[in-house]
Amino acid sequence: MVQFVDKRNRSKEKPATILHYNRHMGGVDRQDQMTSYYPASTKTIRWYKKLGIHYIQMMLLNSFFLYRKFSDHKMSLYEFRNSLLCSLLQIPATKENRMPKGRNASNHVLTKINSKAKDGRINRKRCRVCATKKIRKRTLYHCEECPEQPGFCVGECFDSAHELQDAAQ
Q: Domain PiggyBac transposable element-derived protein 4 C-terminal zinc-finger: where (predicted)?
């Protein structure tokens, strides 16, 4: 038992463990506060998954404290989380201006047709890929870089036509 003085200047006794807890409880409160900045729990997750996520958050926060203690580079918790996740997922931290795979350097892009018919409706074109498969499909999109500016469906038709075109070149 340890003696202490309360708010009214009276001498009282309490267990040493409680005194020790009260002295060091600020760190626990701070850790709880910092984990609350980025909550990851939802009502639909099972309890054991919530517990696992909580442990991962605690490990991440402890590693952040160690990083701040031993590193000269100052970083916020948000930046630390992002850099850690990027390194775990092996994603480059900065966005590079990379050209999409399977595209030619001339940057063929699917654009919306802006011309209108006399009655005010937007003109549509037949999809070139669907037409070769004898499927009648009209689309609002075309490729302005291709000769004749053919129409293409969004997604697979445009991609497959340009992959074939790139392979031919």
A: 118-162
